[in-house]
TrEMBL record:
Cited Gene3D superfamilies: 3.30.230.10, GHMP kinase, C-terminal domain
Name of the protein in its database record: Homoserine kinase
Lineage: Bacteria, Pseudomonadati, Bacteroidota, Flavobacteriia, Flavobacteriales
Superkingdom of origin: Bacteria
Pathway: Amino-acid biosynthesis; L-threonine biosynthesis; L-threonine from L-aspartate: step 4/5
Organism of origin: Flavobacterium hibernum
Length: 311
């Protein structure tokens, strides 16, 4: 095999209570990528369609993630006398809050790993894809790349050492994600955060993280909903998102289990039980932005159990 075509899924990070540690993988929103093995050594981005992103390998998240992986491969396994080309077909907008950079980073390392004969597990690939996130936002967070690579829900239990736990989604869980058409850079959305939190807030936050994980394992939809609460980050970031309070309120009134900022925003997500409710929430969210005359995109998606996949 010398060429592979991939679907690189969008993801929702944080999930309200789990800043930088929780994420889930979406099913029907994502990019496409072609990774090709070529004679010339190194990594080249040969084509980007759908976005104005740098082609230079060291300035592109896919390139940086791929280089990190190949450096590790050559030092642990063997030096290779060939290289790789990457074509990226972007559908996820940069700065949308549904893991645009993560999809590209995850796709690149997954594709190269396949063409090398799978020397690494999907979990092993997370550390390399994180280097793309570092380039994109200044911080090597894993809460988008982990679900993009592993599918389902993921918890980053620890960053040093990296310890990632994948959790199956309850069958009937659906996500609705609305993207008001403004760009919010993750680095900007991180700059509004405080470096310290109160013990009172921390207690509420870790109670909810535990509750959400327990809810996922026991398929307790109400517990999942009660746990989708963010004491720490949402109050500081929500002011950057037009109509946030109204969208969230609308989602809850229309049957959402919970709702919050998707990743670093400006997208807003809601989780619900069953597709009908998720569709109804999408309709109600759309009306809010239509009344505000604000262009938006909306997705209703099952939780994707697989992560990046070969097309
Ligand atoms: N955890 C990251 C943040 C996700 O909220 O900054 C960015 O998509």
């Amino acid at each position: 095999m010398t060429q592979i075509k991939l679907f690189c899924p969008a993801t929702i990070a944080n999930l309200s209570c789990g800043f930088d540690v929780l994420g889930l993988c979406l099913d029907n929103a994502g990019d496409e990528m072609i990774v090709r093995k070529v004679d010339q050594k190194g990594v080249r981005i040969t084509k980007i369609v759908g976005a104005d992103l740098p082609l230079e390998t060291e300035k592109n998240v896919s390139g940086v993630a791929a280089l990190a992986m190949l450096e590790a491969y050559e030092s642990h396994f063997k030096v290779i006398d060939f290289g790789f080309e990457i074509e990226i077909y972007k559908h996820i907008k940069a700065g949308s809050g549904i893991g645009s950079s993560a999809a590209s980073s995850a796709g690149a390392v997954f594709g190269i790993n396949e063409l090398l004969g799978q020397p690494y597990s999907r979990k092993d690939l997370v550390q390399f894809a994180m280097q793309g996130e570092k380039l994109a936002s200044g911080n090597a967070h894993a809460d988008n790349v982990a679900p993009a690579l592993l599918g389902g829900f993921t918890l980053v239990r620890s960053y040093a050492p990296l310890d990632i736990i994948r959790i199956d989604s309850p069958e009937e869980l659906f996500a609705t994600v609305v993207h008001p058409q403004i760009e919010l850079k993750t680095s900007d959305a991180r700059s509004v955060l405080k470096q310290n939190v109160s013990l009172k807030s921390a207690i509420m936050q870790w109670g909810n993280v535990g509750g959400l994980i327990a809810g996922l394992y026991t398929k307790d939809y109400d517990l999942i909903g009660r746990s989708l609460h963010d004491e720490i980050v949402e109050p500081l970031r929500s002011v950057l998102i037009p109509g946030f309070d109204q969208i969230k309120q609308t989602a809850l009134e229309n049957g959402a289990l919970g709702s919050g900022i998707s990743g670093s925003g400006p997208s807003i997500f809601a989780l619900s039980r069953g597709k009908n409710t998720a569709d109804q929430i999408a309709k109600a969210m759309s009306e809010v932005y239509e009344n505000m005359n604000l262009p938006y995109e909306i997705h209703v998606s099952k939780i994707n159990p697989d992560g990046v996949r070969i097309l």
